[in-house]
């Protein structure tokens, strides 16, 4: 389903070369919830950027849902992100001028779909993430947990092939963080969605099915998560 | 502080070269426009004054009559007055050059021996001292001394001949010698000829008249007493004054002309301040994080404020240093046009170069430095007031705060607008200076500027649907962004609106004036053909023609009537007015004077001295039908009764219309400025009569024959030319505003980097991002356009009905210039979009990963 083969990503910082990923190979079957952990500079953000089609590798191939994202031109990448990927960010990244429902359907609106077409589905989704009746609120009228729920709804709306989460609980208190994680877990399991989540938090990582550890651009650990008793 | 400036600011300037460049360019353009316009204004005025001064030479008093002239015998009368040390008479006139349309030679007729007392003439190849005994020079009527420059430029040498138009037609003149371009000859840019005054009188049929007698007093301290004695000796019709006083009526007159220039420089100044404010304040806002870092590292608030103030001063100085010489170049580019307009409409001025004095430099530096300082202070104050931790936060939406209805800008803005109409009633402190009107315009521009952030906020919702309809969902986001930083976005919107408003105001004023003057020409002077000497429109540069031509014109087949019109500049009622005389029978039967008050006088009333006044003269001097006034004339002081007030656009100072017979008697002048020819059948005879006049008189006497349509066209062009510099200013204002648009959007790109990253992450492609910023630019353009059209309409009404009335005395209705409004609106929107494309491209090329900057 996700197939990463021999991926190298080299950044240039002035005259220095940084090998952020150094020959990483990884396969994630459909429906798997993969957590990636690692310290700062381990390459986990680079991995997320590449899987999120936000960046292209220096060498190697990445295929998502059968499509080679490592060789797509920019506009095709945009379209691919819009239709096949869902993002959840640490800082929620909602547009402050849009209401909850507008934020949720933003990728569809960018894709040229009409509001009328998308609203019923978005309302149902917002209701399912616990935001019934709050769809016309703007981000500054929502709590952190609520904002992240909107972000989850936004990520799920297009029924993506892959959901990427970057420290989704990093900006939330532990109770709310746990709730949001549970929401992501349940929603993706119901839909048989593949999830890749980057986190610092070992407890958050344990929500997944599988845990990959990165260090200095290499995979240093790849284990199934033991289901807590 | 200086080390901080070098360490922090200099690196910042060099690190964001584009923004630094825009800031400096903004300051420089504002400064150059101000310096350019003020120096043009000053140079024209100075040229005019220096003409008066150098021509007057060392004279303490000048005895003068106007175009009709002083009898030569008065020279002896003056010399006999006790206290007169020396007196010298002179005759000056302007002669059109044969075969060079629109070019004239200023001829001075003097007695070189006598005149040498007041003025110095230096010969190039001629001993000026010997000319007083040179019988060939004194006894020939065709001997002229030219300046060496003029001779060189026209390929003339001593002994060569050239042709000038005299009242008897073109005549050959001989170059008798060359003079250096010094003293009085310099004032006219070298286009001067000097003749013996007796020869000049003879050659130009001036009888034994002088135009001026210069007087030197034995006692320089008591000029007033000498003036009184001269007045008693010469009688009440002859004016005796210090030379510089004679220029004052012309200066008053030129104030009307400066209307356009004043409006232009005021607007350029305002827009310049806007742009400086815009660029500097955005720079400060964007460096919030840097400020936070400096604060976190221990910099005090006062240090931050001082640093930004110093930066602003440095940028202001650089901008001024560039702007002042550029302003000089701008002035040089425009001065010829302005001088031509002034020379066509008012008085001959020779301005070869613009002068930039300490006042202009100081004004320029003040705008550049103080404007930048003022612009930087508020944002620097706000930025340094927040806690370091706040400033350091990455996700704070930057960009200049929110606006609320209940705040001081709202109250002040509404207050200023409320005062705008009442202040138009303020009286003019100096004649022709429409202070109240200008003040009102200033209040309107300030008021709308203060209220514009509120307007922007209010426009958010109304803009959402149309923007989405045009640009897709990116348009909707643009409508939101447009209203998000209203304080910042309001700056380019206001600047743009002022540029647009100015175009509407001036376009409306010029159009309204043109429409009214065309109607006047149609109704009041419907003649089929107009015969004039070389100057195309009868005016200050016109050389009057001999009245004898009338018989020759009348005898042409197809001519029905000929009205010999004299349009003579004359000092009366403290103004330089035009005395117009025409054949009343023709004037009232063929034309329809646009009567405003009273009753057109019949023949009996006319012969008793009843006159018609132009509305502007009546308004300026508060004269109504039934009022009487006096004028000094060559035959004594005469009292005239006002019978009617009509619309007349001959002079912006005012006109008195007198019956030709009465005029000939009173002013002893039978010359004609324009023959108004009525043909029997307009369709059939116009062209044949024109051809016949040209054949019989035109070629010989260098006369022009204009059709009615051509006269209308000339009048239209004259009005448009008077505002040509203002049109250039509109362009500068709009360019400044567009720089503001680029700057604002560049700032928005930086502010919203994260959002752009997010949009790209959730699938927006580059086209979406370009549309997002292009749409925001379009909204800025549309709002600036709509505001400009509205403000321009209101200011146009004020300029036409208040400033125009105070400056010219003409009251005509304001016609809203729909076509210009549409052009400006579309132009502003399209230009704003184009200006937005660069920031949009930059936004679309942001690296998504860096923009999102996760972790």
Task: Please describe what this structure looks like.
- The complex is a heterodimer of chains A (229) and B (855).
- Chain A is an alpha/beta fold.
- Helices cover 35% and strands 29% of the residues of chain A.
- Chain A has a single domain (30-59, 71-224), classed as 3-Layer(aba) Sandwich (Rossmann fold), CATH 3.40.50.300.
- Chain A has 7 helices and 10 strands.
- In chain A, the strands form 2 sheets. Chain A has a 6-stranded mixed β-sheet with strand order 6-7-8-3-9-10, with helices on both faces. In chain A, strands 2-1-4-5 form a 4-stranded antiparallel β-sheet, covered by helices on one side.
- In chain A, strand 7, helix 6 (174-191) and strand 8 form a beta-alpha-beta unit.
- With 855 residues, chain B is of the alpha+beta class.
- Chain B folds into 4 domains: 1-54 and 258-396, no CATH class; 61-241, no CATH class; 454-523 and 713-848, no CATH class; 534-702, no CATH class.
- Helix content of chain B is 59%, strand content 15%.
- In chain B, the strands form 3 sheets. In chain B, strands 12, 13, 14, 15, 16, 17, 18, 19, 20 and 21 form a 10-stranded mixed β-sheet that branches. Chain B has a 9-stranded mixed β-sheet with strand order 6-7-5-8-4-3-10-1-11. Chain B has a two-stranded antiparallel sheet with strand order 2-9.
- In chain B, helix 17 packs antiparallel against helix 18 and helix 27 runs antiparallel to helix 29 (766-808).
- The two termini of chain B are 35 Å apart.
- Classes of the chains: A alpha/beta (229), B alpha+beta (855).
- The A-B interface holds A 40, 45, 48-49, 52, 54-55, 74-75, 78-79, 81-83, 85, 87, 89-91, 93, 95-98, 106-107, 109-112, 154, 166-167 and B 395, 397, 472-474, 476-477, 480-481, 484, 754-755, 758-768, 848-849, 852, 854-855.
């Amino acid at each position: 389903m996700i197939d990463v083969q021999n991926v190298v990503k080299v950044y240039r910082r002035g005259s220095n070369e940084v090998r952020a990923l150094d020959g990483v190979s990884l396969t994630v079957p459909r429906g798997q919830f993969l957590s990636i952990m690692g310290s700062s500079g381990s390459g986990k953000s680079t991995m997320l950027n590449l899987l999120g089609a936000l960046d292209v590798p220096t060498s190697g191939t990445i295929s998502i849902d059968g499509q080679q994202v490592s060789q797509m031109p920019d506009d095709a990448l945009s379209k691919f992100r819009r239709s096949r990927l869902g993002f959840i960010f640490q800082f929620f990244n909602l547009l402050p001028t849009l209401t909850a429902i507008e934020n949720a359907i933003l990728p569809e609106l960018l894709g040229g779909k009409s509001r009328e077409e998308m609203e019923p589905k978005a309302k149902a989704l917002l209701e399912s993430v616990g935001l019934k009746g709050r769809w016309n609120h703007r981000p500054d009228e929502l709590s952190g947990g609520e904002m992240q729920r909107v972000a989850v709804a936004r990520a799920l709306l297009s029924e993506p092939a892959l959901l990427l989460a970057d420290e989704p609980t990093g900006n939330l208190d532990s109770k709310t963080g746990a709730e949001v994680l549970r929401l992501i877990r349940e929603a993706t399991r119901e839909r048989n969605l593949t999830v890749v989540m980057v986190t610092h938090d070992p407890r958050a990582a344990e929500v997944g099915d599988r845990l990959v550890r990165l260090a200095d651009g290499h995979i240093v650990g790849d284990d199934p998560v033991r289901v807590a008793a | 502080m200086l080390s901080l400036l070098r360490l922090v600011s200099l690196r910042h300037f060099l690190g964001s070269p584009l923004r630094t460049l825009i800031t400096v360019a903004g300051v420089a353009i504002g400064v150059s426009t101000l310096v350019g316009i003020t120096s043009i204004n000053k140079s024209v005025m100075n040229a005019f004054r220096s003409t008066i001064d150098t021509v007057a030479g060392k004279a303490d008093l000048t005895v003068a009559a106007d175009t009709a002239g002083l009898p030569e015998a008065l020279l002896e009368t003056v010399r006999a007055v006790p206290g007169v040390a020396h007196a010298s008479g002179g005759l000056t006139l302007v002669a059109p050059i044969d075969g060079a349309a629109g070019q004239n030679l200023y001829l001075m007729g003097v007695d070189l021996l006598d005149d040498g007392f007041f003025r110095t003439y230096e010969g190039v190849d001629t001993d000026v001292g010997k000319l007083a005994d040179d019988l060939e020079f004194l006894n020939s009527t065709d001997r002229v001394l030219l300046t060496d420059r003029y001779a060189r430029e026209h390929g003339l040498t001593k002994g060569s001949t050239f042709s000038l138009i005299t009242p008897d037609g073109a005549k050959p003149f001989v170059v008798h010698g060359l003079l250096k371009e010094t003293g009085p000859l310099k004032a006219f840019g070298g286009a001067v000829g000097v003749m013996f005054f007796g020869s000049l009188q003879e050659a130009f049929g001036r009888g034994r008249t002088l135009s001026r007698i210069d007087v030197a007093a034995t006692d320089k301290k008591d000029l007033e007493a000498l003036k009184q004695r001269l007045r008693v000796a010469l009688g009440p019709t002859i004016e005796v004054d210090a030379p510089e006083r004679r220029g004052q009526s012309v200066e008053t007159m030129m104030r009307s002309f400066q209307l356009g220039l004043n409006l232009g420089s005021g607007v350029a100044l305002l827009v310049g301040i806007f742009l400086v404010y815009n660029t500097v304040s955005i720079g400060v806002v964007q460096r919030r994080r840097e400020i936070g870092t400096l604060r976190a590292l221990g910099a005090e608030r006062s240090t931050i404020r001082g640093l930004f103030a110093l930066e602003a001063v440095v940028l202001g100085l650089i901008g001024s240093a560039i702007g002042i010489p550029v302003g000089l170049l701008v002035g040089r580019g425009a001065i010829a046009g302005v001088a031509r307009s002034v020379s066509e409409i008012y008085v001959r001025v020779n301005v070869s170069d613009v002068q930039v004095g300490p006042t202009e430099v100081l004004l320029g530096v003040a705008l550049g430095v103080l404007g930048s300082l003022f612009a930087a202070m508020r944002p620097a104050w706000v930025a340094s007031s927040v806690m370091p931790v706040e400033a350091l936060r990455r996700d704070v939406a930057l960009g200049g705060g929110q606006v609320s209805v209940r705040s001081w800008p709202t109250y002040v803005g509404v207050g200023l607008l409320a005062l705008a109409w009442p202040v138009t009633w303020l009286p003019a402190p100096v004649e022709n200076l429409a202070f109240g009107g200008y003040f009102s315009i200033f209040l309107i521009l300030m008021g709308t500027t203060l209220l514009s952030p509120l307007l922007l906020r209010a426009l958010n919702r109304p803009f959402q649907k149309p923007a989405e309809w045009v640009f897709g969902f990116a348009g909707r986001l643009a409508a939101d962004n447009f209203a998000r930083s209203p304080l910042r976005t309001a700056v380019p919107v206001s600047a743009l609106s002022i540029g647009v408003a100015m175009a509407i105001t001036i376009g409306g004023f010029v159009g309204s004036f043109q429409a009214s003057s065309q109607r006047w020409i149609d109704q009041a002077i419907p003649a089929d053909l107009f015969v004039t000497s070389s100057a195309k429109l009868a005016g200050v540069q016109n050389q009057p023609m001999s009245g004898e031509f009338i018989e020759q014109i009348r005898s042409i087949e197809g001519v029905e009537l000929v009205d010999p019109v004299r349009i003579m500049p004359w000092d009366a009622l403290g103004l330089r007015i035009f005395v117009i005389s025409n054949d009343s029978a023709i004037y009232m039967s063929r034309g329809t004077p646009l009567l405003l008050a009273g009753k057109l006088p019949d023949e009996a009333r006319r012969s008793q001295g009843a006159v018609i006044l132009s509305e502007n003269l009546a308004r300026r001097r508060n004269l109504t039908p039934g009022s009487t006034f006096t004028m000094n004339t060559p035959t004594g002081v005469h009292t005239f009764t006002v019978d009617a007030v009509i619309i007349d656009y001959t002079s912006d100072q005012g006109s008195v219309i007198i019956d030709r017979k009465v005029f000939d008697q009173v002013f002893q002048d039978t010359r004609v400025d324009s023959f108004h020819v009525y043909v029997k059948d307009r369709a059939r005879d116009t062209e044949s009569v024109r051809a016949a006049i040209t054949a019989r008189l035109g070629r010989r006497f260098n006369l022009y024959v204009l059709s009615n349509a051509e006269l209308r066209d000339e009048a239209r062009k004259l009005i448009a030319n008077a505002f040509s510099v203002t049109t250039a200013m509109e362009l500068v204002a709009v360019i400044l505003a567009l720089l503001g648009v680029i700057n604002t959007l560049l700032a928005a790109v930086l502010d919203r980097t994260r959002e752009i990253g997010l949009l790209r992450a959730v699938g927006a492609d580059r086209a979406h991002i370009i549309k997002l910023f292009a749409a925001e630019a379009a909204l800025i353009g549309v709002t600036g356009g709509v505001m400009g059209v509205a403000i321009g309409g209101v200011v146009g009404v004020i300029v036409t009905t208040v400033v125009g009335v105070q400056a010219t005395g003409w009251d005509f209705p304001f016609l809203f210039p729909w076509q210009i409004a549409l052009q400006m609106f579309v132009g502003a929107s399209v230009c704003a979009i184009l200006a937005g494309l660069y920031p949009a491209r930059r936004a679309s090329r942001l690296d998504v990963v860096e923009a999102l900057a996760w972790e």
